[in-house]
Design brief:
The protein has 3 helices and no strands. It has 112 residues and is mostly helical. The longest helix has 37 residues.
Length: 112
């Protein structure tokens, strides 16, 4: 466990610049579209949700799945294998919940 924490920390430090280079979230107020409308609000909400899912949730879940794989393969003890299975299970459940919520929100925003 002591060897995994520096690895996760260094991965987080390396991925922060990728997250910081996100596109502007508000589509209006610039030179091309100076006036905001209700449609701009829905576009902004869509961009925020996509940013949270694709720039944050997927890399975090990939990291959690890698940690679960390390626990499963190199764990050695029954407690480590149980921990790896729990991490794997809860990561997949979290992904299903996140993308299920995205599906519901996308359907609602698509019909507005």
């Amino acid at each position: 466990m002591k060897k995994i924490k520096p690895l996760v920390f260094s991965l987080a430090i390396l991925t922060i610049p990728l997250i910081a280079s996100a596109l502007p979230l508000v589509p209006c107020g610039g030179a091309t579209q100076p006036a905001c409308s209700v449609a701009c609000f829905y576009v902004m909400i869509d961009r925020i949700i996509n940013f949270l899912l694709y720039a944050i949730a997927i890399p975090l879940s990939a990291t959690a799945l890698m940690v679960a794989g390390i626990y499963l393969v190199a764990g050695g003890s029954e407690k480590a294998i149980t921990t790896g299975k729990a991490i794997f299970k809860f990561t997949l459940i979290g992904l299903f919940i996140a993308f299920g919520a995205w599906l519901i929100i996308d359907l609602i925003l698509g019909n507005l």
